Amino acid sequence: MQIPRRILILGPESTGKSTLASDLAVHFEEPWVPEFAREYLSMLDREYEYQDLLQIAKGQVALEDELAQKAQKFLFCDTDLRVIQVWSEHKYGRVHDWVKTELDQRVYDLILLTDIDLPWEPDPLREHPDPEMRQYFLDWYQKLAVQSDFPWEKISGNRSKRLEKSIDLIESHFSQ
């Protein structure tokens, strides 16, 4: 059985990650992994807490691994544990050891870093609409992409430009 190439779509809130992951999945006729946190947080009847981030992390990993079994060539991941790392460090000043260990073990074949050039779309689960915070988180995610040692590219522009550039990158990156 061939192991699918895992392509991570990474970036701050409201930067089109889910849209890009879904569009790529449709184009390549492959599965995409939605953000487990959305489902988890929408079921909570309270504010999320530090320990919830570990449950979200475990749910994200399990969902990604489950959908990898259904992928042939590519698996498009709407997010990964870097998001948990960033939120945990930003909000609580610490990251659970399980998340750190998993981050060191999980491999992605390409990271598509979504830019903040799309307009903010309000959503009850989003927390930081101001431009300075969007830039702050973009810088942080870019630093994590660089530190990952995985190939990565920043994806900017409107929906169609992002999709076109991403398809081109994927096709050229995996043409060997």
TrEMBL record:
One of its GO terms (molecular function) is ATP binding. Keywords: ATP-binding, Nucleotide-binding. Gene3D superfamilies: P-loop containing nucleotide triphosphate hydrolases (3.40.50.300). It comes from Algoriphagus marincola. The keyword Transferase does not apply. It comes from the Bacteria. Signal peptide: none annotated. Residues 6-162 form the NadR/Ttd14 AAA domain. This is ATP-binding protein.
